[in-house]
Structures are given as C-alpha cells and as structure tokens.
Amino acid sequence: MSGHSYSRQNEQPIQTDTNSLTGSEAKRLTIAVLNIKILAKQPGTPVGFKEINYEYHSMSSIELTPSQKKILRALTNLHKESESAIKGEDIAEQVDRNPGTIRNQMQSLKALQLVEGVPGPKGGYKPTAAAYEALEIQQMDDPASVPLEHEGEPVNDVIVEEIDLSSVHHPELCRAEIHMQGSMGEIHEDDSIVVGPTPLSKLVIEGRVDGKDDTNNILILRIDDMVAPAEEPAH
C-alpha cells in the first residue's frame, strides 16, 4: 500500500511505502494527511500548507503530565456519572485544586483535543473520545459487571476494568491492584473492599485499602481473603 506525505519545499506529494511503517507511524501519517485535507478545504488556505503542525501523534502516545492526567481522569469520572458538561469547580473539588488552575489546565487539554468546552449557563467541559484513548480507558456499551463493595455497601457507579495480583506466593505481601472507571473519592486508606465475583473465574477478593493511585484510578488492596471456586472434574 502506498500513501502520500507532503514536502514544504516543493509542495509536491512524496510517495511513501507505508508497509515499512509501524502501526503507530502509519497512524500518525494518516492523522497528518487527514489534517492536511481538512486544512486544504479552509477558505484562503494556500496549497503550501504552511500553517500545518507536522508533530501529529496518535492520542495514546500523548505524554500527559501527572497533573493533566489526574484532571482528565476526574473529568471522565464525573462525566460518566452525569453524562453532561462538568463545571470547572466540580473538577477542582475532585482533585483538590483551585478553579483557576483547572481553567489553565483545560486550555492545554483543549489544545490537545482531549477536552471540549460547552458554552452557556449549563456549560462546562466534556472529554472527547481521544481523552479515553489517551487515558487508555476502554469504552464499552455493555461491560461485564464485576461487583464492588465498600465498607459492606455495594458501589454501583464504578466499573472494575482489571485486577492485577502481586507477590501471590507471599500471603503477607500479597496485594491486588484494582483498575477502575469512576470516582474513588469516598474510598480511604484501610477501608474494607470486596471485589467480585469476576465473570469467568468467579474470583472474589476481600481486603483493605493499602493505597490509592488517583492519577490512574487504581486501588491497592492488602488481601485478607481470595476465593475462586474449584472447577468440577470432567466426567
């Protein structure tokens, strides 16, 4: 398969063998060509495309600062709960920052096309599809439900994405990392958590919160008990 890239010097198409490109390189080239086509359609835009920024990247390769990632994660969590535009003040409260800081960070996130601003009295901010890709959040219409209980009460507004276990050979050091979508604001260190049963293995994990990674939405549990029913022997 052949594609085209463009030269600033002679403004002529250059044949490019995209078969030799990696997946991410081909994706960046596709994004660049798409943006060239969009720019070319704008009234008064010269054919030379001098205004084009050639540093296009796939969204999953965008390097966000920890602060940007934490704010963007808070926005996606709040938007999941309300499905409407989110006020900067609500994001500020979620991440314990002042609203002015949020407004400044939102400008850079909008420039990265990760956030869109919604004007009007009910306006605010919404994450774009690229925001979920940048945070590596899987968007599923009907995800399999993995129950989660906090201090004995079911938590209905979160999705358990992934469970990672470490040091399983050492009971005292064994930890579970629970990757989640949704707010973890009400969950605190040493709180009781029960996760499961999972859809396939029917694994149930009971433990207490050993730490939280608010930037990546991960709960770290000290495991008190972990049970998965044994498979019935084949007849």
From TrEMBL:
Listed InterPro entries: Tscrpt_reg_Rrf2, WH-like_DNA-bd_sf, WH_DNA-bd_sf, WHTH_HrcA_DNA-bd
Residue ranges, annotated region (Disordered): 1-21
Gene3D superfamilies referenced in this protein's UniProt entry, alphabetically: Winged helix-like DNA-binding domain superfamily/Winged helix DNA-binding domain
Bilayer-spanning residue ranges: none
Coiled-coil ranges from the UniProt annotation: none
SUPFAM superfamilies found in the cross-reference section: Winged helix' DNA-binding domain
One Pfam family here: WHD_HrcA
Domain of life, source organism: Archaea
Listed GO MF terms: DNA binding; DNA-binding transcription factor activity
Protein name listed in UniProt: Winged helix-turn-helix transcription repressor HrcA DNA-binding domain-containing protein
A cellular component annotation (GO) from this entry: cytosol
UniProt source species: Natronorubrum thiooxidans
Location of the Winged helix-turn-helix transcription repressor HrcA DNA-binding domain: 63-140
Organism classification: Archaea, Methanobacteriati, Methanobacteriota, Stenosarchaea group, Halobacteria
